[in-house]
Amino acid sequence: MRPEILNPLFAETESLKGIGPALAKPLKKLNLTRIRDLLFYLPSGQLTRIKTDHATAKDVGASVILTLTAREYRSSTGRGPFRVIATDGQNGVIHLLWFGNNSSWARKLMPLGETRIVTGKLDIYQDQLQIVHPTEILPLSEGNSIPIKETLYPLSDGLTHRRLSHLIQQGMERAPDLPEWIEPTLLQKNQWPSWRQAIERLHKNPDDRDAKMRISYDELFANQLALKLIRAANRKKRGFPLKGNGHLRDALTLPFKPTGAQSRAMLEIEGDMQQSSPMLRLLQGDVGSGKTLVALNSLLIAVEAGYQAAFLAPTEILARQHFETLSQQLAGLPVNIALLTGRDKGKLRESILMGLADGSIHILVGTHAIFQEKVSYKNLGLAVIDEQHRFGVAQRMMLAEKAEHTPHLLVMTATPIPRSLMLTAHGEMDVSRLDEMPPGRQPIETRVIAVQRIADVIASLGRHIAQGGQAYWVCPLVGESENDLDFSSEIASAEQRYTLLQQYFGDKVGLVHGRMKGPEKDKVMTAFSKGEIAVLVATTVIEVGVNVPNATLMIIDHAERFGLAQLHQLRGRVGRGSDRSVCLLLRGSELSHVARERLALIRGCHDGFRLAEEDLRLRGSGEILGTRQSGENGFQLASPEDISALLPIANDDARLLVDRDGGLSAERGQAARNALYLFERDAAVSFLRSG
């Protein structure tokens, strides 16, 4: 139960003065539905403004008195920005631009022929003064003073910086002074402000480093404490030792000898499964490092010990691939393996459920359907979860409830995680790392080509198809509409490339993206797997788990828009057979220094772990590991720089609290309980209700 002192912070934002249905809508769009959300919605910067009656300033924050003189318009194609032309009364003309679907809001605020104070960044584009997305538009009156400094926030239609600042100030007035959860010596050493002071200072000055470090530390500490509690609770759970006699593993016929890394991971897992406390281990391996073989070895230990095992995959197509692979490897062994997905109905499903209940099915492979309420196991001893980041703690707990005692759990990921982030994502787990590649795995030749040479690339693709090959063509966007907020319209979408390639290759081209429904997507993927489609145009939906050995060409459109780790994952979709494979990185015409360095690294390096570290270094405070679908860091306030600097300290402090300072029952523990709820890591509290 949430501590009472936090109730004001979890009150609805609609309880603040001045929030009606019209203002509640943009707040909800930004997920600012509680006072807590408002306080943690930190500013993006601060603007020092000049007041000017003459449109001569440029590249500055300005508040300009303007009269609207001309009609708004869009380009002849109907795309591009919504535009209003205004004058400053001194023959200076300024264009006001809104990208996306903001025209109704702009029309309401900017009636033609009237004068307004328009605030925003003055800039010049093609010799024309303009303000893109004005931050505030006010009637001309004495009451509308123009602030010299203003805190800036990411906004949504219907919100202004000033309005949001007023709401945050109301929220601060309700915020309680919370008991201190940081260890006193650490607090004194860093001379950090209290939690409440830090929040207040950051909204006044986003560059206040001490305040930012304090808040970042709080978030990291809450995360590490939650993981420590989960780990401690897991070790107290009632499990059962699983010790196999090796007769099934010895009977396996493998085409190659396991690598040293695979053998080491197998021994670590075998040792864990022999303990009475349930295993909770992460198997981290690069693309093609042989995680499936390690998983199979683990599954067979459970079966040898007389228990059942479940293998959970995030998608149906990946579940079917795992089922086929494991079935081939287990051929001739007395092991009954079955597949269960959400689409299995009728007698087939009933037969599988009966086999699980009576124990005649030894290994079940499937999607989330394998832990639905009606699925009951006779004696589930081990669960293996592939692509761990697709499943949350709650889903893992549902699977654990399928056994009388908590089953051993092995989770796997092919997404390399920087060592500095490993504790934040998997701090409650033991980790095995596959850092060797099996013999025979060929390096993928990687080339960088300017997108202007797309005609040459298509011609090369045609020759590849004529020789019986298959290829992926990956785009950063699904459709044209995603370009609305981008000043450049040259970024190709998957739908555009699909239309273009159909002109050359007809029905040999297929399209998949995240907006498609599951059955529709799987139909195309299955056709590609069977060789009925030669070119699969896709977004990053194919980043994980697609295994088509005949596909030996990967083309990544506008590769500079992807993170290093994501590029590496995409490249790993090819090179899965014995034939030579190639990855072509099409780059845009304008590259930043970071983009150039990123493309140079991916071209010359095939080590996913090194690329993950470089990705973190290059991205800095930006997104980690691609565009947040691969190994997200899960933090709202702490930047990657903060994580690197503060995580080891927060981890040690959390361990100190759990191991020495009485956990949640002591005085500091009670304060730390507030932190768990405040930063929404409170699921961990349920593991220690007696704390």
UniProtKB/TrEMBL annotation:
PROSITE patterns tied to this protein: HELICASE_ATP_BIND_1, HELICASE_CTER
- Which positions are tagged coiled coil? none
UniProt cross-references to Pfam families, sorted A to Z: DEAD, Helicase_C
Residue ranges of the Helicase ATP-binding domain? 272-434
Q: What is the lineage of its organism?
A: Bacteria, Pseudomonadati, Pseudomonadota, Alphaproteobacteria, Sphingomonadales
Matches recorded under InterPro entries:
DEAD/DEAH_box_helicase_dom, Helicase_ATP-bd, Helicase_C-like, NA-bd_OB-fold, P-loop_NTPase, RecG/Mfd
Q: What is this protein called?
A: DEAD/DEAH box helicase domain protein
Give the GO molecular function terms. ATP binding; DNA binding; DNA helicase activity; hydrolase activity
List, in alphabetical order, the GO biological process terms annotated in this UniProt record: DNA repair
Q: What organism is this sequence from?
A: Zymomonas mobilis subsp. pomaceae (strain ATCC 29192 / DSM 22645 / JCM 10191 / CCUG 17912 / NBRC 13757 / NCIMB 11200 / NRRL B-4491 / Barker I)
Query: Which residue range or ranges hold the Helicase C-terminal domain?
Result: 467-617
Task: Say yes or no: keyword DNA damage present.
Answer: yes
Arranged from A to Z, the UniProt key words for this protein are:
ATP-binding, DNA damage, DNA repair, DNA-binding, Helicase, Hydrolase, Nucleotide-binding
